[in-house]
Amino acid sequence: MGSCSSHAARIPDVDSIQRETGFSQASLLRLYHRFRALDRNKKGYLSRVDLQEIGALAVNPLGDRIIDSFFPDGSLQLDFPGFVRVLAHFRPVDVEDHGNRDPQEPEPLNSRMNKLRFAFQLYDLDRDGKISRHEMLQVLRLMVGVQVTEEQLESIADRTVQEADEDGDGAVSFLEFTKSLEKMNIEQKMSIRILK
Amino acid sequence: MPSRLFFDNLGAILTYAVVGTLWNAFTTGAALWGLQQAGLVAPRVQAGLLDFLLFGSLISAVDPVAVLAVFEEVHVNETLFIIVFGESLLNDAVTVVLYKVCNSFVEMGSANVQATDYLKGVASLFVVSLGGAAVGLVFAFLLALTTRFTKRVRIIEPLLVFLLAYAAYLTAEMASLSAILAVTMCGLGCKKYVEANISHKSRTAVKYTMKTLASCAETIIFMLLGISAVDSSKWAWDSGLVLGTLFFILFFRALGVVLQTWVLNQFRLVPLDKIDQVVMSYGGLRGAVAFALVILLDRTKIPAKDYFVATTIVVVFFTVIVQGLTIKPLVKWLKVKRSEHHKPTLNQELHEHTFDHILAAVEDVVGHHGYHYWRDRWEQFDKKYLSQLLMRRSAYRIRDQIWDVYYRLNIRDAISFVDQGGHVLSSTGLTLPSMPSRNSVAETSVTNLLRESGSGACLDLQVIDTVRSGRDREDAVMHHLLCGGLYKPRYRVGLLQELFKNVFSGSRGQIKLEGYKASCSRHFISEDAQERQDKEVFQQNMKRRLESFKPTKHNICLTKSKPRPRKAGRKKKDGMANTEATNGKPPRDLGFQDTAAVILTVESEEEEDSDSSETEKEDDEGIIFVARATSEVLQEGKVSGSLEVCPSPRIIPPSPTCAEKELPWKSGQGDLAVYVSSETTKIVPVDMQTGWNQSISSLESLASPPCTQAPPMTRLPPRSLVTEESQAPLNLPSDLRPSFAFPTSLAKAGRSHSESSADIPQQQELQPLMGHEDHTHLSPGTANSHWCIQFNRGGRL
Questions:
Q1: Which range of residues forms the domain containing residue A149?
Q2: CB–CB of B358 and A164 under 8 A?
Q3: At B197, phi and psi to the nearest 5?
Q4: Predicted TM-score of the model (pTM)
Q5: Which residues in chain A have their CB less than 8 angstroms from residue B412's CB?
Q6: What is the number of domains present in chain A?
Q7: For bias kind Basic residues, which ranges apply (chain B) (predicted)?
Q8: B603 or B7, which is more confident?
Q9: Chain A neighbors of B704, CB-CB under 8 A
Q10: Which of A10, B270, B291, B772 shows the greatest Cβ crowding within 10 Å of its Cβ?
Q11: What is the C-alpha separation between B573 and B578, in angstroms, rounded?
Q12: Same domain, A29 and A69
């Protein structure tokens, strides 16, 4: 519609973003407005502080890691395409896409593999491609309540790594990670409907 | 019922339940009326539009009983199951309201129905359903609250659950609200808290009693149905009505499902595909509710009642028998996604939680208060207020889902290990990184501990109870032997010794003997040949062990120090250091009385669940490693050198080993393998080390989920041992079970004084005595005095 496209036209590079992420115009618009709302000082980009000011994220055990995932490679500024690119991982999977997707094109950002890769990166902080026992322990520490002691956490971490680890290297690689989650309905568990 | 799935799909469930039922009712009623207008229904069926609508409303309700029975057989995927089942549960409100509304309209006469009545009807739908749910939630709250305080009166827990749930039903019925919704909400609401609060026995009792009662009720209903079918005075046949009804319910259900699914798929993350829709429409079975409602019709108001009854009977029979029987082949033919019975893995649980948090965070970033946001908020509210209010303190403390899964996995591994004929001393090939067969020995103690302590860990102990391995038989033999020996006032140690030597070989037998002797020491009245024999035996044992075992570098740490550092959360890298630091007594002094003592100490602290878990841990330690301990201690080199601390060589130091157990494999895996293999006759393959270590450490942690808040204990185990022994002289038979069980039995004895704050003064008072005893009891030369002392102490107490 007229008003919609004119708004959307305000978003820089809207077409390339749309192609890359697969968001609809309406979703992109909503995200753009949200981006602008978060950007308190109207800098044109988001910094970590802006995201940290979202109150609910502060009480989320993985809040900090999620914020970090928006700033890949240690960058300090988050522009709109970057913002949308991360959020694109949570777009619901389009069932129809699979039929007529061009195999030459890279996988859409919200494919199962990419969703899992995003989650994997949340665990794998040092980006070595493996979740070591230490990293697993850190995540567990974040997520498990205070009443579980350190030793218990270590046992749980050990067992978790051992469950998933197939080649016996004491760490969980991405493939092992996906394998351990093959029964889980990732498409549902890692999608937000509103981001269609 | 999986509540998470239920709430995840609540939108779909509500749609089908409310909209679907309304649609079915109206269309079926209208179609039947149209059929009558068209003359296909005999005119003797005197029914007007309202009557048909009434009939439509009662025939359109999908029955939860039938659905559950059929779908349990079929094993479709969980989403499908929960949608159909949830629909059948929630449509009760709609059915009841529709039925009542139509009934009252019929009574009023169709001419008198006014517009306001329709509105009142719609309003009553909301009142009935929401009111029923509210009643259920109130009773859920009550139930959770009362079960919080039933620790001392465990026996009434199942009763409470039944009564309050039934009370919810009755209250809703009384107020003409939806009773099924009330009971459903009661169950859904209180499940989490009641499960945490009540004991395992109660849980099992509730579960199986409910299943039995449900089975009985279903059977009776269908029997009534069958009898009514045969009793032709109750019904009148009309072919047009019957066939028409059958056709219409199938047709309109299918149509309704298709339409609603099309609408729902616009909003769902995972759309329901065609096959799911087929299963959903085919799985709409009618059942007892429809029959009950039709019987209740008033014949004077509704002259066509008999025809309706006949139709209902046919419909119910048809759906249940024909549809129920054919749904399974249909599901197979259509290749419906079946539910995969996968065991819960720790990974999945952990990652599921992670994803929940991620999604909640992303929703926050996007600024959208979606499902996950509210879910997260609810979880926080629950954690902060509700759980504290409704869950027992001990259960609340150890409440953590990841931990629960981990715990259950360990138990499962242990059970399967023992099921494989696992035997600590006999199995040479562990296929699972599971706990040693201490399980079978410990089952009496660990499981009892778990039961008594009412820990929040969900452990289906009935499984453990039925585990019978060779170990148990041996234990039984041993027990009988010992029992036989016990009742003789002055039994002949020599004879028993011989028996033991013959029955059990190796160090195990010796240890048992020692344990036995230790336990029955109080029966010794005089030092005579018995003690001489003891001395000889001990010397022989020591020598043998020295020769056979290689020295390891395990630290012997005092078991008693174990709980304290644990509670402090310290990493015990060096058990020795801990022992020395926390326990003034030299480690060597711990005999296996000490082990038992440790266990007992912890046992007696049962008022706190953490303590009981400590006890389990202690039990595990003691039980597993008692035998080993002996040799271990021996080869530690204490025999060679550091005996200055204790005059006697480490003959019976299971306890040090016990304590040691937990630390060594924390410090080094390599040690463990050697340790184990040299120790017991069981060989743990090297590649199982990791798993073994994990199991052991998990065992320990298993025993002590909530450690942080436990008050530091200062009592020394030996004292408690003495206390235990003195306080439970009659427990000797159980005490005399194989040494592996020795700590267990002592633990059991310990358990008998759960509120053992009284023990503390006793123990402290006995401390000096114990200390004295410690120094002496281990020496073979002083075995006499050892036994004497023990006996004396017992006498004194």
A1: 111-189
A2: no
A3: -85, -35
A4: 0.57
A5: none
A6: 2
A7: 561-573
A8: B7
A9: 149, 152
A10: B291
A11: 9
A12: yes
